[in-house]
Amino acid sequence: MSNEHFIRIGHGNLANLSRCVAIVHADSAPARRMIQDARDRLMVVDASSGRKTRTVLVMDSEHLLLSALSAEEIARQLPATAPADEPAEGGD
Predict the structure, then answer these.
(1) Engineering a disulfide at 47: which of 13, 28, 77, 78 sits with its beta carbon 3.0 to 4.6 angstroms away?
(2) What is the share, in percent, of the chain residues with pLDDT greater than 90?
(3) Domain ranges of the chain
């Protein structure tokens, strides 16, 4: 079995986390330009079901997945990692 992990991006849609490069807020000007450029290249998958796009998932294939969920809602689904407050090894 592969180590693929799917996350819910809203309205019954799933995204393969292992193919995701970044999860960004959609309300910034650079994100909107990125969305428009991807639309022009037919590389957008709109999974927002007609609602306001709140988050953009950038995939390794250069596709953009548009979600109506917030980045925080999506981040809650990410697999647990080591706590960030653990001290680094080898430090004084």
Answers:
(1) 13
(2) 78
(3) 6-75
